[in-house]
Write a structure and sequence with these properties.
mainly alpha, 23 helices
Length: 456
């Protein structure tokens, strides 16, 4: 990055003889200058002075300005409106669209990038957020109005700077995501929205895969069917008729997963996502948001083996609009399972999620559930006719996954289906008995807890 700032106990100015220092060291120096403002202002004033506009900016001074802006982006939580008023004033004077005029002798692209990075960090900080957030978003809107392609530059900056799971507190990552979602639903949402939500889902998955079902971080994971069936049935039998739409925080509480920071971050971010989805429904944007989330689900969640909770974001958006999102999601999963174009691992994952979804989604009609069971049974029975061989787990994994899904759904929905005469008759006419007694013997291969509960 060129010649950078000297150590914090020296003046905040550079000369040709100064040695290069790391980005981390620079962040520490700028942080120290902010912290020491009440005791001695020399370093702080030098820092503010570096931000003052200079018309004849040479390459060395430009590099210094870029590195200082980047360093400030790394320590925004230390900026205080009471003690650092002159710094904030200097930053407010740095107008993105006037940089080219201010620094006539220099290509200001790097300076603009660094300033945008700082603005994003300020928006996500807890230091002066009450005074900065609205101004930052207003400034971003003005930039987008004047430079329509600017949001395309902003999106990768926001995504690349999402806090790492171990680097920040729960409060800080929630603050960052809040501002991501504000961008998604704001005036630039049409441009950046398709980037913000998938990035959020990726972050949820990152946290999700580290959480074991016992609340500990470990390497092993259980697939969706290998959760204790008794726990799931108790979960589904909850007296609260709206259990489908409950916050994942409640689900995490029931599973007793509190006690580590990863759980707290995932819990907080999923609840925040739910609130955002509620807002999207109120504003009439739920359909487009659903399409974005569905694409992200197929790309990220579907084939992530250790995901246990992130899929509830999809379940929740479906519960908000059952007729549109809820039905569409079920049909998409069904069709993906039936399509031979998809690889076996994808089809197995799809039917697992389909079973989990239909088992919990009381907002879906019994008729739809019966029709999907019919399609699954018909597919499995047709498979039996083609593969009239002895059972082979490896060769017939997709088939066994389909059979297991049928049993799993019926463990939850049998009573509601049998209470409707037409649906009861539909179930009776399905070739299930022939399916279960076939040479492929799904009752012997499928997960024992599911089979045992189904046979009851």
């Amino acid at each position: 990055m060129g010649q950078l700032l000297p150590n914090s106990n020296e003046e905040l100015r550079t000369t040709d003889e100064d040695a290069e220092i790391s980005d981390l060291q620079l962040i520490y120096q700028v942080r120290d200058a902010l912290l020491e403002v009440t005791d001695g202002r020399e370093n702080y004033e030098e820092l503010v002075g570096c931000l003052q506009p200079k018309r004849n900016l040479n390459s060395h001074e430009a590099a210094q300005l870029v590195t200082i802006l980047k360093a400030l982006a790394g320590v925004v939580s230390y900026i205080d409106s009471v003690h650092h008023g002159t710094l904030i004033f200097a930053l407010e004077r740095m107008s993105l669209w006037n940089l080219a005029t201010t620094y006539k002798n220099y290509d200001v692209t790097d300076i603009m990038d660094a300033l945008i990075e700082l603005l994003v960090s300020l928006a996500a900080s807890k230091g002066i957020k009450n005074k900065v957030l609205s101004r930052v978003h207003d400034a971003l809107k003005q930039i987008a109005d004047l430079v329509p392609l600017a949001p395309l530059q902003l999106s990768p900056i926001v995504v690349q700077n999402i806090p790492k799971r171990y680097d920040v507190t729960v409060h800080e990552i929630v603050m960052y995501v809040e501002n991501m979602l504000k961008l998604e639903s704001g005036s630039m949402g049409e441009i950046v929205g398709s980037t913000m939500l998938p990035a959020l889902v990726d972050k949820l998955i990152e946290l999700d895969v580290e959480i074991g079902l016992d609340g500990k971080i470990h390497e092993d994971a259980k697939c969706i069917f290998e959760m204790e069936l008794e726990d799931i049935i108790n979960f589904a039998a909850d007296d609260d008729e709206n259990y489908n739409s409950m916050c994942v925080s409640e689900m995490l509480n029931r599973k007793k997963l509190q006690g580590n920071k990863v759980v707290e971050k995932l819990d907080s971010l999923i609840v925040l996502t739910f609130l955002h989805l509620d807002s999207c429904q109120s504003s009439g944007r739920l359909s487009e948001v659903f399409d974005t989330l569905l694409t992200s689900f197929k790309r990220t969640v579907l084939n992530t083996y250790k995901s246990k909770f992130t899929q509830f974001v999809m379940f929740y958006v479906c519960a908000l609009h059952p007729e549109l999102c809820g039905v569409k999601f079920a049909i998409v999963l069904r069709d993906m399972f039936e399509s031979p174009v998809n690889p076996p691992i994808t089809r197995m994952s799809v039917v697992s999620y389909l079973a989990s979804y239909l088992s919990r989604a009381k907002f879906l009609s019994s008729a739809l559930v019966a029709d999907i069971i019919q399609r699954l049974v018909d597919w499995c029975f047709a498979y039996c006719k083609i593969h009239d061989l002895d059972m082979n787990l490896q060769a017939h994994q997709v088939f066994y996954s389909g059979c297991q899904a049928v049993m799993y759904i019926l463990c939850f929905r049998m009573k509601s289906l049998m209470d409707v005469p037409r649906l009861r008759m539909q179930l009776i006419k399905m070739p299930m008995l022939l399916l279960w007694k076939h040479k492929l013997n799904p009752l012997k291969v499928c997960f024992p807890s599911v089979v045992e509960e189904f046979l009851k």
